[in-house]
Specification:
This protein has about 70 residues and is of the alpha+beta class. The chain is built from two helices and three strands. The protein is elongated and about 50 Å long.
Amino acid sequence: EEIIRFSVEKESNMRENFMKEAAGLHIPLAPENLEVIKEGDSYRAKAKWSETVKLLDFYQKKLDFSIEVKG
């Protein structure tokens, strides 16, 4: 959220920073699942990813996540 709210960067730099931040948080975000859109003087970013969570070594559940931030 901070990347988009306080950014004065170009869209391509913002995308790169989002990808680095996601990697640092161990979020499996693929570049094609990240959208950065310029809207006048502000930006909107949307991202989506999935993760499989293991419970007790025999149960797996796929969880889908999405986030949208405007700044």
